[in-house]
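Appendix B. Raw example, untouched.
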Amino acid sequence: MSLAVTFAAIPYRRTGVVAMSDVGQVILCTLLLLAIAVVALVALKRKGWLGRWLGESATADQAPAIRRIAQTRLSRGTVVHLIEVTGRRLVVVESKSHIRMLPSDAVESHDPNL
């Protein structure tokens, strides 16, 4: 009497787990859902609802707090800017090694912009 028991091998599957027609349908549905999501986001952004949901402040539509009035290049690496910050005018001197800010009333000028 033999104790060895032989079992038949499990056959390999000859067909794919997922049919190619199913893959095509999944890709098509995914693209359709992405298109719907993009259209919805664009519509929400146009109406201004997206900004409220994301927490944008109501002051984002107002004029910027910093405004450049004039700019002059003194040399290759030095530029003088006249800016206005919330109603105050400042002169900013920018060079390769440093930046300096002065209130515009501390600077003597013959320029009517200052």
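End of appendix B.
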